[in-house]
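Inverse folding, one chain.
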């Protein structure tokens, strides 16, 4: 099966025997086949589906002992580091499936609105598949790294003078009336792919966590994780389910406030969304799991962002830090039972947003090229 144009090598990464529980091949212990092959039997694909993959998934589940020390040492805290995906965010899980199904359906072009990461992922997977990509981003609200990704992968990038929500409305209407496939998370294949995040957490942890903490923007990922946990539960792979706790930025908290926010504001541009597309299903996930939606301020987000970088060695973008800020907040508020196991999804890599990093840390100092000048600065 070959989804690329021009007869280049097949895109399928590994033989079908990699699917299901077997995981990577025993003779190639480091070979990871991408999420479609790994979790094929849980996904809406057939032998006829051309697999468009960048070998996404298999991201680290990293213990965070310092974070436990700083909050409640009785907790076992793990970070699901989704910034280690091929384009630097969790979006690649959904995009491999959405793009494979688009190719299967004979699509020649894809379109999306994005706060940045979806556009980066769509652009990369479209390049891989040989499809055109059109992406709309809210002008002035997209981190530099994400914009550079969409551009270099050859997408047609339009900066919409409005909010993400307005851009999403426009692309939905275009996709209804033009021969382009919508690859926002309203495309059902996106969430199907993203549910594999929950599968991996269970496969890595050997159980379900007691709590799963996750940032909420368009509310697709929290919906997808809950679906993944439920499917593994139904399949007998876990005997308990986590409480899903979602965090919105205080200035962009439509679900928390139960109203549409016309002009969302937050330093965490990835989740600067005022009317989430998956609002309903996300609320259901929260209710079914006995979880809740909470908020964190920009100040709390930036404090967690720096703490994570300096004390755990993990550089994640501000939207991901919202989850860590949320953890600090809810542990302090006594909402987490002691001794619990928690997983936090860190959704995107810190390099996505170098400007916020430089604004949040001390600036490099210029020195003359002399030993004395350098030593004087180092204070050794
Ligand atoms: N974290 C990051 C880094 C994101 O890019 C997003 C969403 C979220 C969290 C929230 O996930 O929307 O499923 O609730 N980014 C989308 C985009 C909206 O266009 O890249 P969600």
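Residues assigned per position:
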């Amino acid at each position: 099966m070959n989804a690329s144009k021009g007869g280049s090598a097949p895109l399928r990464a590994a033989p079908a025997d990699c699917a299901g529980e077997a995981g990577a091949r025993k003779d190639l212990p480091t070979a990871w086949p991408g999420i479609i092959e790994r979790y094929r039997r849980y996904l809406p694909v057939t032998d006829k589906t051309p697999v468009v993959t960048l070998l996404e998934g298999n991201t680290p589940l990293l213990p965070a002992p310092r974070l436990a020390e700083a909050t409640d040492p009785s907790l076992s805290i793990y970070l699901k580091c989704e910034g280690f995906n091929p384009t630097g965010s969790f979006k690649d899980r959904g995009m491999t499936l959405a793009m494979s199904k688009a190719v299967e359906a004979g699509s020649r072009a894809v379109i999306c609105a994005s706060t940045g990461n979806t556009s980066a992922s769509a652009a990369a997977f479209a390049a891989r598949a040989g499809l055109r990509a059109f992406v709309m981003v809210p002008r002035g609200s997209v981190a530099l790294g994400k914009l550079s990704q969409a551009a270099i992968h050859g997408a047609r990038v339009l900066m919409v003078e409005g909010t993400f929500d307005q851009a999403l409305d426009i692309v939905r209407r275009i996709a209804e009336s033009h021969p382009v496939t919508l690859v926002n998370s309203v495309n059902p294949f996106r969430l199907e792919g993203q549910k594999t995040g929950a599968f991996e957490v269970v496969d890595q942890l050997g159980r379900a966590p007691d709590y799963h903490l996750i940032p909420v923007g368009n509310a697709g990922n929290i919906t997808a994780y809950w679906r993944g946990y439920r499917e593994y539960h139904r399949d007998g792979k876990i005997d308990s389910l986590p409480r899903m706790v979602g965090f919105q930025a205080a200035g962009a908290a439509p679900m928390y406030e139960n109203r549409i926010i016309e002009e969302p504001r937050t330093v965490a541009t990835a989740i600067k969304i005022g009317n989430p597309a998956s609002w309903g299903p996300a609320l259901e996930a929260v209710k079914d799991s006995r979880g809740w939606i909470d908020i964190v301020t920009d100040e709390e987000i930036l404090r967690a962002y720096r703490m994570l970088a300096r004390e755990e060695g993990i550089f994640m973008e501000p939207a991901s830090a919202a989850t860590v800020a949320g953890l600090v907040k809810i542990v302090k508020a006594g909402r987490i039972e002691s001794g619990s196991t928690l997983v936090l999804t860190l959704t995107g890599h810190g390099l996505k947003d170098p400007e916020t990093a430089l604004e949040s840390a001390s600036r490099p100092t210029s020195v003359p090229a002399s030993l004395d000048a350098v030593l004087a600065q180092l204070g050794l």
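Residues 1-25 have pLDDT under 50 and may be disordered. Residues 220-234 form the longest helix (15 residues).
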